[in-house]
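hi! just following up on the protien thing from before. the input was this:
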Amino acid sequence: MYINATGYYIPEGRVDNAHFLEVNGLTADWIEQRTGIQTRSHAGECEDSDMMGLEAIENALPRLPYDIKDVDLIVAASYSVLDTVGTMAHVAQRRYDIKGAKALYCSAACSSFINGLEVVEGYFASGKATKALVICSEHNTYYSNEADPKSGHLWGDAAVAWFVSKERQSDSDIEVVEIFTEGLGNVGKGPEGVRLRPKEGGITMPDGRDVFIHACRYMVYALRNVLARQNIGTDALRHLICHQANKRIVAQVAHQLDLPMERFINNIEELGNTGSASAPLVLSQNLDRFDSGDLAALMVFGGGYSCGSMLLRF
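and the predicted 3d structure came back as:
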């Protein structure tokens, strides 16, 4: 499986830490010390999750080596959706008139994007698709409550879109070497660790400590699974990218893997927690850091709970 083109969209709006002192009583220094966040992206009045997803696709199209109408599978993979019926996948299919494509939505909280890619892998393996579009658009601030002192200051908005094919399409394609995901609903607080209930407070994180502990543990667990399947060690990786939930989580993952923080690429300082868009977004923003032959790994952890990892070869 190969990544043919990537695109992303980040709203221009930013909310800095000082904003929250009057909103939920947290100081700018307190927030930065505990999360690594300095500002977070914030969608404006005319920016919803569908709009951001379409803009991410537009951003990818100039680098796509085939016509978008050749896509035969569209997967929307996120959790902070605008509409659970007319999904982002169907909106994209209509915008680009992609006749005959399968269109569906999947969610595993902040693991959604990698789960979506694994769904694509399954369609490719069964011979039911050959070219796919995976879209992740997270409009966290649409659902979040800034006054919540446990998690209201964490969230940012962004979208990412990847075009993926079963066979190589160009010399610049990125190979998806391995994907691993696992549901962890039976672990820790499980489904109660992070919740999104629009009529009951929006996005909430009742027990951040439980989320922190299991995110650190299971991102490493997921990475070790993909590396073991390819019989390679962490020294072979040029860069690593974690889900951008908390920079202290990234530091703990680096410690567990005995790797320097310089090997990890982050955007949480500026954008906050952009949900399941965060790890693929970091990669899409930093493609110029990689050379031919480089290996990179993404690690994610989602409320619910779930984890995933992906190994890429440039």
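Residues 208-230 form the longest helix (23 residues).
The chain has ten helices and 13 strands.
cheers
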